[in-house]
Amino acid sequence: MAKKVRIERDLCIGCGLCAAVMPEVFEMDDEGKAVVHTQPEEGVEVDVANDCPTGAIIVEDED
Ligand code: SF4
Fold it and tell me: Of 8, 10, 25, 49, which shows the fewest CB atoms inside 10 Å?
């Protein structure tokens, strides 16, 4: 099942980890916050969500 990823923008402290680990999904914007530019491909786990220091990466199953 595909995962849908989003960033809780208020929680992101701009550490850059997610964009460094998964540049195919995340990038840093002009304000130094992470954004999702492309949803992960089917079957790809977004393990970096567990490593985000503030829990700002939300991964949900797509309906
Ligand atoms: S890992 Fe978390 S805090 Fe760091 S840039 Fe990504 S969303 Fe923001």
Answer: 10
The residue extents of the domains of the chain are 3-61
Q: In 3D, which of 45, 46, 50, 27 has the Cα closest to residue 37?
A: 27
Q: Quick check: CB of 50 below 6 Å from ligand 1?
A: no
pLDDT one digit per residue (tens) for the chain, 63 residues:
678 999 999 999 999 999 999 999 999 999 999 999 999 999 999 999 999 999 999 999 876
Q: Which residues of 38-48 are buried (b: 16+ CB within 10 A; e: fewer)?
A: eebeeeeebeb
The rounded Å distance from CA 63 to ligand 1 centre is: 25
Q: Which CATH class is domain 3-61?
A: alpha beta
